[in-house]
Amino acid sequence: MADRPKTTLRDCIYGLAVGDALGVPYEFRPRGAFECTDMIGYGTHGQPAGTWSDDTSMTLATCDSIRELGHIDTADMRDKFVGWIARGEYTIDGVFDYGGTTARALHTGKGGSGERDNGSLMRIAPLAFVDATDDEICEVSAITHAHRTSTDACVIFVELMRDVLNDALPSRALHLKGVPKQEIRSGGFVRDTLKAATWCFVNTSSCEDCVLAAVNLGDDTDTTAAVAGALAGTAYGIDAIPREWIDTLRGKELIESCLF
Fold it and tell me: How many other C-beta atoms lie within 10 A of the C-beta of residue 118?
């Protein structure tokens, strides 16, 4: 990692979006029922190849808020999330996938108190690229997911991201190296998503292998691969992502417009 140019937010977001798009066709399919080897279309949501989901849309809304304001403003982020879910902003062809906790929180203006959903972890990566405090990370999570399980997972993930940004092997994740796949769960529970994505990262040695491993865990394929892709994009850089995947990825102009 030290031999390439300094990591930028762009590396991270493209890793995340590619992982998301790889996982979209397989969402909800059980492990072992398929094998993802490339970026394909249709499948679960009937979307063309290279289409990303709510994971990337909400991440881009987060980025766009920071880009416009130059600091973290949860009210502005919430407004942008509402623009996404209500009007299809930050999407390619409109909204086709979102969690119930997120929808309720944006409708009521109050973050959900349930502990299981991973809907804030999937969008928190941009905060690793600003001087966000733990309290600010928790507040950004709490826009939609206010339970401490979710906010703590977001803090841990931003810490992991910052380790990778500093070219440091995340020692807090090394206990997952060599853990058998059957011990890794890949559903929607936020702790499972964090563990699964980190497992993929520490047990592979390329961006391509990391995101494919995440998708092939099954179940919540797009979110697991988006979170793993954020780590891998940050570690290896956009140039390490297969060129054909970048070419196939849709909405690149929108991605570029939201980066800070």
Answer: 28
pLDDT digit string (tens) for 38-84? 999 999 999 999 999 999 999 999 999 999 999 999 999 999 999 99
Reduced to 3 states (helix: H, G, I; strand: E, B; else coil), residue 48 is coil
Counting DSSP H helices and E strands in the chain, the numbers are: 11, 0
Structure-token pair, residue 36: 């993802």
- How many residues in the chain? 260
Distance CA 190, CA 197 (A): 11
Q: What is the 3-state secondary structure (H, E, C) of 146-179?
A: CCHHHHHHHHHHHHHHHHHHCCCCCHHHHHHCCC
Q: What angle do CA 81, 77, 52 make, to 5 degrees?
A: 45
Q: Under a CB-based contact definition with an 8 Å cutoff, are residues 232 and 15 in contact?
A: yes
Q: Is 38 exposed, middle or buried (0-12, 13-18, 19+ CB in 10 A)?
A: exposed
Does this model's pTM top 0.85?
yes
Which structure tokens are listed for 204?
């592979």
Q: Answer for the pair 195, 157: CB distance below 8 angstroms, yes or no.
A: no
Give, as one character, the DSSP assignment of residue 240.
G
C-beta atoms surrounding 202 within 10 Å: 19
What is the rounded CA–CA span in Å between residue 48 and residue 130? Answer: 33
